[in-house]
């Protein structure tokens, strides 16, 4: 082989090697093809940011259904030598429950109001009509006449559990719509006979939150916010307790609303007794009977064991009182009790439960 050939081969080998290396780089590193240079992060471990925990989607569905409520009443001044009427405005929140304009709020928000105004989140201001109220649960139903209302998402049985994340939506201190979050500390029952067993949560409530929405992490309504827990301090002044706030359970609130819309009020039956379960045995032991109540007039006595109501075996005190509460006043029901090893049957006429009975008891 001549000297020229050897020199030519020596020059061609590095050129061919360079071409091969270039092809490999272009194939495996596309950045070179777009002139962006080599991305050195390719050799570093993947440092992806974890997805943000957010309830934005849930609130996007539920928050527009919560309204600000302003109730206006005319009151007389008690000043000496001057008797003038003045206007008082109360602040609260409400929840749009249906497309035809029914809203729920707390009764104390609109009590004795001469005018009620509802401010929607789309800036509309509407005058509301009071449909009815229930003093026992402190709930009221309003109606507005408007189109394109944003309705609160609802499910028939929210199945709320202790530890579930919840959010309170309302208008505290008239700051505008505000959302606070917390967890469920205690769940409330949903029966008509149950008067004060509300959902308890540590989601913050302030003046103006009453009547607003308590929603779960999916944006579904689980309660109507009512109040925070208050007690007396060492100077006998009323003070709020941080982290202890209440809401009426959704299922109970919905039943109250439906009955108010249908009948104008909530009617509950009552017999005037209370009882408690017997461990491991059927029935409930009667522990109190109100004087002159339907139960007293029928002959029910303390320490009687109630076995059945209208042929339905008694499982628990709560379910039994619920069944009685949902019975139309004036109806006759049959109680079967055990007394001193004797079985006694008695007919009782169901009375109507009044708010003052609860205050008294």
UniProtKB/TrEMBL annotation:
UniProt KW keywords: Hydrolase, Membrane, Protease, Serine protease, Transmembrane, Transmembrane helix
Q: Keyword Protease: yes or no?
A: yes
Span of domain PDZ: 260-341
Which InterPro entries does the record match to this protein? Answer: PDZ (IPR001478), PDZ_6 (IPR041489), PDZ_sf (IPR036034), Peptidase_S1_PA (IPR009003), Peptidase_S1_PA_chymotrypsin (IPR043504), Peptidase_S1C (IPR001940)
Q: Which Pfam families match?
A: PDZ_6, Trypsin_2
Q: Name the residues that span the membrane.
A: 7-29
Per its UniProt record, what PANTHER family does this chain match? PERIPLASMIC PH-DEPENDENT SERINE ENDOPROTEASE DEGQ (PTHR22939:SF101), SERINE PROTEASE FAMILY S1C HTRA-RELATED (PTHR22939)
Q: Which family does it belong to?
A: Belongs to the peptidase S1C family.
Protein name stated in the entry: Trypsin-like peptidase domain-containing protein
């Amino acid at each position: 082989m001549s000297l020229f050939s050897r020199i030519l081969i020596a020059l061609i080998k590095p050129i061919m090697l360079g071409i091969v290396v270039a092809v490999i780089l272009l194939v495996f590193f596309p950045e070179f093809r777009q002139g962006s240079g080599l991305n050195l992060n390719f050799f570093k471990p993947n440092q992806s940011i974890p997805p943000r925990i957010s309830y934005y989607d849930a609130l996007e569905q539920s928050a527009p259904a919560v309204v600000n409520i302003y109730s206006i009443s005319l009151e007389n001044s008690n000043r000496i030598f001057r008797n003038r009427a003045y206007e008082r405005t109360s602040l609260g929140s409400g929840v749009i429950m249906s497309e035809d304009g029914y809203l729920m709020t707390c009764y104390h928000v609109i009590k004795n109001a001469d005018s009620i105004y509802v401010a929607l989140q789309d800036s509309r201001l509407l005058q509301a009509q009071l449909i009815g109220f229930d003093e026992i649960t402190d709930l009221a139903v309003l109606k507005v006449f408007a189109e394109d209302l944003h309705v609160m998402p609802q499910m028939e049985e929210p199945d709320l559990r202790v530890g579930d994340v919840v959010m309170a939506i309302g208008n505290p201190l008239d700051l505008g719509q505000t959302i606070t979050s917390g967890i469920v500390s205690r769940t409330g029952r949903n029966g008509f006979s149950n008067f004060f067993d509300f959902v308890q949560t540590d989601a913050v409530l302030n003046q103006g939150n009453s009547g607003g929405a308590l929603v779960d992490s999916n944006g579904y309504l689980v309660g109507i916010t009512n109040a925070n827990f208050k007690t007396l301090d060492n100077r006998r002044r009323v003070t709020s307790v941080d982290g202890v706030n209440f809401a009426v359970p959704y299922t109970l609130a919905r039943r109250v609303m439906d009955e108010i819309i249908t009948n104008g009020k909530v009617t509950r039956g009552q017999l005037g007794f209370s009882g408690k379960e017997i461990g491991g045995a059927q029935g409930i032991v009667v522990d109190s009977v109100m004087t002159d109540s339907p139960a007293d007039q029928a002959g029910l006595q303390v320490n009687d064991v109630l076995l059945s109501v209208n042929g339905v075996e008694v499982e628990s005190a709560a379910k039994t009182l619920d069944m009685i509460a949902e019975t139309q006043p004036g109806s006759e029901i049959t109680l079967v009790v055990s007394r001193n090893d004797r079985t006694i049957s008695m007919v009782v006429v169901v009375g109507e439960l009044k708010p003052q009975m609860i205050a008294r008891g």
